[in-house]
Amino acid sequence: MLGCMDAAKLEQAHHRLIREFRRDALDTANWTGRKEFSDATMKAMAAVKRHLFVLPEHEVAAYVNRPQSIGHGQTISQPYIVALMTDFLDLNGDEKILEIGTGSGYQAAVLGEVLKTGHVYTIEIVEALAKAATKRLKELKYANVTVRHGDGYKGWPENAPFDAIIVTAAPKTIPEALTEQLIPGGRMIVPIGRAHDRQTLTLVRKGNDGQVTVDKVLPVAFVPMVRSKP
Ligand code: SAH
User: What's the pLDDT tens digit per position in 191-225?
Assistant: First the structure.
């Protein structure tokens, strides 16, 4: 349990981080074309307490703008990248969203905050992480997020099509099943590239006619999206 002092310090650090996003957004505007994030994105980033998603020993640094280990060789993404990817989905609040790479559940919780009536379906390949995220999101009362243990390369056909898809591990190329499970008019944000090499955050849009367009957003570094063992 945190003491009152610690809780107050974490809250201050959280406020500081939210203010930093405004500057970071300006710094990367040349790449992203976005000088600021929507109110909905900023509100969600302010609402979700990141210290509840990191390992207890990393709690004090939960509001430092960098990724952190969550065990099993995996990481919780840098908060600014979570904000950027959320913003790039241009959500109204009524979408059905698919996330690949639940990890700690932090990104899913941020999406859950943005939604008013929609739902987040999220898939994690490491069973222990899927279980821990399910428990955490339930305790935090995110009734609009459903976690499943499985292989994200296959998407989630039972719930497709999705209005928006967010991939938080890096595949080498855009997974075909995911493009297929995107609704016409929908969008997907995904880091593309080889493991431990330069990757590019990529925006994939499916037009109302089914035509797919691909735009590069920003150089990034994500853990690789792995293949399930046959
Ligand atoms: N969104 C997470 C961070 C994700 S780190 C958060 O907010 O904490 C990337 C995650 O993708 C890791 O947990 C990793 O196990 C998972 N992953 C890698 N390959 C996957 C695949 N094929 N399907 C589903 N999850 C995968």
Answer: 999 987 789 999 999 999 999 999 999 999 999 99
Residue 230 domain-assigned? no
Instruction: Out of 38, 69, 77, 228, pick the active-site residue.
Output: 77
- Specify the CATH number for the domain of residue 168: 3.40.50.150
122 in contact with ligand 1, CB cutoff 6 A: no
Please check whether residue 12 lies inside any domain of the structure. Answer: yes
Amino acid at residue number 78: Q
Give yes or no: 77 in active site: yes
Question: How far does residue 146's CA lie from ligand 1's centre (Å)?
Answer: 15
Strands 199-206 and 182-192: antiparallel
Q: What is the largest CA-CA distance in the chain?
A: 56
Residue 228 lies in a domain: no
pLDDT tens across 60-104, in order? Answer: 999 999 999 999 999 999 999 999 999 999 999 999 999 999 999
